[in-house]
Structures are given as C-alpha cells and as structure tokens.
Amino acid sequence: MRYQCGGASSASQYGNGCRCAGCREAWRVQADEGRIKKRKGVRRDAPIPEHDAFTREQIIKARE
Questions:
Q1: Please, which residues have CB within 8 angstroms of residue 30's CB and are 6 or more apart in sequence?
Q2: pLDDT tens-place string over residues 29-56
Q3: For the chain, which residues make up each domain, given as ranges?
Q4: Distance between CA atoms of 59 and 6, rounded to whole angstroms?
Q5: Which residues, at least 6 apart from 3, have a Cβ–Cβ distance to it below 8 Å?
Q6: Where is 64: in which H helix or E strand?
Q7: Model-wide pTM > 0.70
C-alpha cells in the first residue's frame, strides 16, 4: 500500500513513500540542489594551503 501525501507535496513525503508528480518533482529538485552543493566543495576550488612547517632548505637559507 502506497503512502499518499494528500496534496502537501514535498521531498520528505516522497521519502515516506508518496509517488505523486508533485512529490517526485520536489525530490528531483532537492537532489539537484544537493549535487550542486557538493560540486562547489571540490578541492580544485580550495585556496592553496599554507605550509605549517619549514623545509630544510628554508631553514638553511634563513640562517645565512
């Protein structure tokens, strides 16, 4: 037996089992937004990390 949202379409209602057109559309939109959000956090968009330690060459150069 399928769950019916009773006209209050949302992604959570789709998760509960409703498969009406409104709930399917709400689920699709939520999934699209999640994919876009994940895509924005990729490593290539992150700034270049600063070094937290000096290399041997940097220490020798600083001593000069």
A1: 11
A2: 999 998 888 776 656 666 676 767 888 9
A3: 11-63
A4: 70
A5: 13, 16, 17, 18
A6: none
A7: no
Q: CA angle, corner 42, sides to 40 and 43, nearest 5?
A: 140
pLDDT digits (tens, 9 = 90+) for 19-32: 889 999 999 999 99
Give me 36's structure tokens.
């876009």
Q: How far is CA 41 from CA 5, 6, 26, 44, 54, in A?
A: 34, 37, 24, 8, 28
8 Å CB contact between 5 and 23: yes
HSE-up (13 A, CA, CB side) for residue 46: 6
Element (H, E) at 22: helix 21-39
